[in-house]
Description:
Layout: H1 2-5, H2 27-37, H3 60-68, E1 79-88, E2 94-100, E3 106-115, E4 119-126, E5 154-157, E6 161-167, E7 173-179, E8 184-189, E9 192-197, E10 204-205, H4 219-222, E11 248-251, E12 254-257, E13 265-271, E14 278-282, E15 297-299, E16 319-326, E17 335-341, E18 347-353, E19 364-370, E20 375-380, H5 385-396, E21 409-411, H6 419-431, E22 438-441, H7 462-471, E23 475-479, E24 484-485, H8 491-498, E25 504-506, E26 510-512, E27 528-530, H9 542-545, E28 552-554, E29 566-568, E30 574-576, E31 578-581, E32 584-587, H10 594-602, E33 616-620, E34 640-641, E35 646-647, H11 648-651, H12 655-670, E36 678-680, E37 692-694, H13 702-717, E38 723-724, H14 736-749, E39 753-755, H15 771-786, H16 788-801, E40 806-807, H17 818-821, H18 823-827, E41 829-832, E42 836-839, E43 850-855, E44 861-863, E45 869-870, E46 873-878, E47 886-889, E48 892-896, E49 912-917, E50 925-931, E51 946-953, E52 956-963, E53 973-982, E54 989-993, E55 996-1000, E56 1004-1008, E57 1017-1029, E58 1036-1040
Parallel strand pairs: 21-22, 21-39, 22-23, 23-33, 33-36, 36-37, 37-38, 48-50, 49-53
Antiparallel strand pairs: 1-2, 2-3, 3-4, 4-20, 5-6, 6-7, 7-8, 8-9, 9-13, 10-13, 11-12, 13-19, 14-16, 15-18, 16-17, 17-20, 18-19, 24-32, 25-30, 26-29, 27-28, 31-32, 34-35, 40-41, 41-42, 42-47, 43-46, 44-45, 44-47, 48-49, 50-51, 51-52, 52-58, 53-57, 54-55, 54-58, 56-57
Helix pairs in contact: 6-7, 10-12, 13-14, 14-15
Amino acid sequence: xxxxxxxxxxxxxxxxxxxxxxxxxxxxxxxxxxxxxxxxxxxxxxxxxxxxxxxxxxxxxxxxxxxxxxxxxxxxxxxxxxxxxxxxxxxxxxxxxxxxxxxxxxxxxxxxxxxxxxxxxxxxxxxxxxxxxxxxxxxxxxxxxxxxxxxxxxxxxxxxxxxxxxxxxxxxxxxxxxxxxxxxxxxxxxxxxxxxxxxxxxxxxxxxxxxxxxxxxxxxxxxxxxxxxxxxxxxxxxxxxxxxxxxxxxxxxxxxxxxxxxxxxxxxxxxxxxxxxxxxxxxxxxxxxxxxxxxxxxxxxxxxxxxxxxxxxxxxxxxxxxxxxxxxxxxxxxxxxxxxxxxxxxxxxxxxxxxxxxxxxxxxxxxxxxxxxxxxxxxxxxxxxxxxxxxxxxxxxxxxxxxxxxxxxxxxxxxxxxxxxxxxxxxxxxxxxxxxxxxxxxxxxxxxxxxxxxxxxxxxxxxxxxxxxxxxxxxxxxxxxxxxxxxxxxxxxxxxxxxxxxxxxxxxxxxxxxxxxxxxxxxxxxxxxxxxxxxxxxxxxxxxxxxxxxxxxxxxxxxxxxxxxxxxxxxxxxxxxxxxxxxxxxxxxxxxxxxxxxxxxxxxxxxxxxxxxxxxxxxxxxxxxxxxxxxxxxxxxxxxxxxxxxxxxxxxxxxxxxxxxxxxxxxxxxxxxxxxxxxxxxxxxxxxxxxxxxxxxxxxxxxxxxxxxxxxxxxxxxxxxxxxxxxxxxxxxxxxxxxxxxxxxxxxxxxxxxxxxxxxxxxxxxxxxxxxxxxxxxxxxxxxxxxxxxxxxxxxxxxxxxxxxxxxxxxxxxxxxxxxxxxxxxxxxxxxxxxxxxxxxxxxxxxxxxxxxxxxxxxxxxxxxxxxxxxxxxxxxxxxxxxxxxxxxxxxxxxxxxxxxxxxxxxxxxxxxxxxxxxxxxxxxxxxxxxxxxxxxxxxxxxxxxxxxxxxxxxxxxxxxxxxxxxxxxxxxxxxxxxxxxxxxxxxxxxxxxxxxxxxxxxxxxxxxxxxxxxxxxxxxxxxxxxxxxxxxxxxxxxxx
Length: 1041
């Protein structure tokens, strides 16, 4: 114990904690400073090439849907539920048939599921479709087996509607009313209507039809006297239907063949009541309070170069989840709910208000349309934010608990060029006492961009290089992208090719339609007919000239030789699809196939991936997928996935998901019991089960720094909490001030903390900046490492309960209307758990020497660095470069560590510090600490961890609840307690353990200055010796008097 108190650390961790001060600048650092001075000379063009990416109007299905919802007589009921077809399914769901007014038979199957957590799920699919519509396999997005169904469902029906009522596991009274004609759904919680599906009758469902047929098969359609007059769907109606793009479509020099024809679907949802704000719809670079653009938000995962701010255009990932706040009237509480659209094909979402409605008032509307697949929509009823998040994870599964090192600093660049470069960067962090956990390598480490290989000249001994990093208790991450270099000498390429696991292209050819039949009267009309204008010449002599024959002419009614109709040959030959990416010509594996995922994962085995060890983890980039010469820089929609003969259009937004899932599962098998780490750029709903996410190739621009708060918040509302943005920006180079501000925000608001930079930018490791900047960055990183116990504790809550690690303020303070729509509260601030409030600074101090903060309604707030108390309210505060505004919530006990070492693993044996921020009204506080071995899955045994619930009350700190027994290789001790907001200065401290009391040294008292709107206060620090061993359970207390 004393050796640890004296600062001895674990092997590979150095001799003492960091903080010895800065050493003199080396020649390398001076050279780096010179490079910084030249940074301003490097300035790539800043503009996305919009011509590469299509809009709603340029996509036929979205354009059709916009016309469809403006059709005459839109209120007419077209699709109706047949209540007599109701059937209870084996999973507890309710099935119905849905019939179109202008068809003879019911062709749609409706399923309504009610889950105990408070989820209502609504699904539409075709009955006996011409082609099988793609359904996401069970377990890929929605967990398998599915969540527990509601057990107390009461069903009541009338001719007009079927009503389902039940009580959620959290006690909310939920009612779902299925409207029969037109089909729709109205969902209420505790007597208040929250969401209405198809309330505006926008429903569209384009069933598959025979090639080039106007209408899909149906008894009525087949005999329709005037098929052009039938009002069926957005692809078949008499109101000037836009037929361009039904069967093939051109964009950007590429032709998309559609042998299965139109198959899009769409619907509207209304968030009822007074809805000030909508949130979510990740991933877009927009405000947190989602703007209602003229152009719909687009979901189509793309490699977007130089993306811009305040845009609804698609980016790298898709989490089509939309949150709404619904304010109550009078004494009614505000409520929250969310709507989820589970469809991996291209999707557009349009947000709207009623015409003439004031901004941020009244109901809000959204219409959704997807190119193909089935309609699978989910109402997360809430009606509180924690319940919405819990419902999301009940449906999609919990996130794994990340290893502690994943929450530390990640050091990345395109590229560290060789083994010496890696060693120099690593040792430089140690030289300047800057902590970091993970070294990263980008694509240049490979042999010709053939992943799973090493550049033979630059990385000749990768095993030694990585072992050297491991010896310092750090980790390594290599990029492994999913495009596979076409090279017969590359074993991975040969294996995938020989197994037939590449995505295919179709070499289209035409064929006779075998169902086409020659009409019975076809041959009754001759090719030639007598010329009616011809007359037998008067001089004609039958005796001399022979019988006169009437001359023949072409018959204008002759139909020609009958030939069957030509259709696309469904057996057109296929070959491996090839596209261009970093290696040049590349193949693209079909990761939807479990066999491909199994093979991919096997390549991470330590005996196959040469040069790696068990401390090597993986980054999947370019997995949208990125195809440099493809339409919209991605895979053609009419490419075919051999697994199930599925067109790429049907699964596009899930391609990246399947890539990082395969990687995660491979790492799980590589070292059983280890916690895998994978970073992905492309993602979909449920990616949280497999990967960390970053916001892609951002810019070193103040607006990108500021908007990262909204982007991170939207991701976490979509269930993805291990997320971050490239600190300092990927493109261009940050000024020293921008770098400082970005680190100050990132250490408090980015769960995944990595800086990354473009190949052509100057180096930006913290130690290459001027000394003042370096010290400020270092201070920020040391703060992150001191706060790791808090971060890890919050992550365990996310893993177990689905609570976002960082989240918009309304999630914790729904009762405070300012958190719904106030610009500062919504756009510039974010919460770390329910403990820390962070306000980003996204302007240089020359433009803004002060800022406005909003502290939500609660017991008050303490400045994170000074401990100064402020009551809730709005304040203007001065800015300095030393910190950004950040606050601990009053009434909390915060677990920290006071010693910062070279990596998080080196801190495992160090004791904890507890900071107590009392509620000034009660003098009380509560808090939580969770710890385990930080790296394996041993905690899943139900005991190999420690959870402690702390209470500070009446001047006494104690554990009111403990669970588990942590391993010996981690510290569960407390060496220091610091209390802020004391009513008076204490003079003594007493530790009692198992009935024995120990008088501790007198508390060190300090006066804390007043925070904005507050009064000066008193803080006291107690050094505890012997340390409090939390393994002893609840049988201890610390009294301050």
